[in-house]
Amino acid sequence: MTPETLVKTPSTPSSFTTAEFDEYVMKTYGRFPLVLERGQGCRVWDDQGRAYLDFVAGIATCTLGHAHPAIVAAVTEQIQTLHHVSNLYYVRQQGELAKWLVNHSCADRAFFCNSGAEANEGAIKLARKYGHTVLKLENPVILTAHASFHGRTLATITATGQPKYQKDFSPLVPGFHYVPYNDIAALECAIAELDHDQRHVAAIMLEGLQGEGGVRPGDRAYFQRVREICDKTGILLIMDEVQVGMGRTGYWWGYENLGVEPDIFTSAKGLGGGIPIGAMLCKSFCDVFQPGDHASTFGGNPFACGVALAVCQTLENENILTHVQVQGEHLRSGLRHLAEQYPTLIVEVRGWGLINGMELHAEASLTSADVVKAAMQEGVLLVPAGLKVVRFVPPLIVTTAEIDQALHAIARALSTLST
Ligand SMILES: *Cc1c(COP(=O)(O)O)cnc(C)c1O
Q1: Of 284, 317, 350, at which residue does a domain stop?
Q2: What is the per-residue pLDDT across 204-244, written as a single tens digit (0 to 9) for each?
Q3: Catalytic residue from among 55, 111, 112, 149
Q4: Are residues 402 and 380 both part of a single domain?
Q5: Which of 143, 235, 264, 316 is spaced 20 to 30 A from 44 at the CA atom?
Q6: CB neighbours of 222 closer than 8 A, spacing ≥ 6?
Q7: Of 301, 317, 333, at which residue does a domain stop?
């Protein structure tokens, strides 16, 4: 190949077509017909130069928005010095990130990987090993909730209490059992029934707020009772903090909204501000992993950890938790105002900090995807959380003015949909 043909290789944005994309990329996603080229703060621009307010943030991931100077600096520094070595050696950035996370959570120790599903796989393995070696269970069972979401690997689609993610992928992984969310009687009943069948519960795995399952906050009394049951029986409490952790709710961790501490928790999405990284953290009493038990080639490399540490420090130095609480309140009150204006379309607005959901009437023909498409026309990116809930997960640095602009655009979108 001559240099000339290399130059002409069709990789520039102008030659890119979505039809070609669909020819070469597996169709695992239903995509909106939008090609984004650039981002700055809470705004992104498409290939036509149109601006959008990004209230998706890579699905609760880009906590510092786009092109944040702290991320640019950390990425640049790390890629110029050392980006990957392997866990054959001590990785300074990994140790520093683990220390930050431990100092800002209830956990004592961390394991690093690359995604939420991988973090949950680690939590499942740790709970099973604890079940076998400490609780002396032959068939340890992990309880999870209906409408939960824990990832797309085989073990995590099994953990996910939604049949639509499991359909066609059997045989699933054994050792999971499902209970309704926020229902303590059902949980107690399931534990007793499993005990009776000689299938004892090793862990209960829950989201503090179900994100994917429709932005449903956990009930404080329920979680406190779950904690009591775990304390009494030795069952581990695993909390999936992949979507609600890292400041999203106005606290570092979703569990802080519920007044409980998990024994194991997982993080990903917001942890790297958009750089792929996941983590599984636990209290020292249940850290039963030995060398050789678990691993990940990319997990905890200097690049991902250096950037994640910069994200953590920036959120902390900019006092982001208070900002998230204030802006979250402002967004919810604006959305509630819209709900009052459109009582036939909107049933409820709910959420914590900057993860909020707007639930549409079950009887109305309108779906969350309809609202997302109409909002996109008005210049705001939103993401569905199931068929009837529209999710709002902007960057944590979102300003009052940006929220007001988004609310006006959503009001225009709702007015076009209600006619
Ligand atoms: C997104 C998500 C996951 C899966 O994370 P991936 O990085 O996509 O593997 C797991 N749990 C929860 C609660 C999530 O929101």
Answers
A1: 317
A2: 999 999 999 999 999 999 999 999 999 999 999 999 999 99
A3: 149
A4: yes
A5: 316
A6: 182, 183, 184
A7: 317
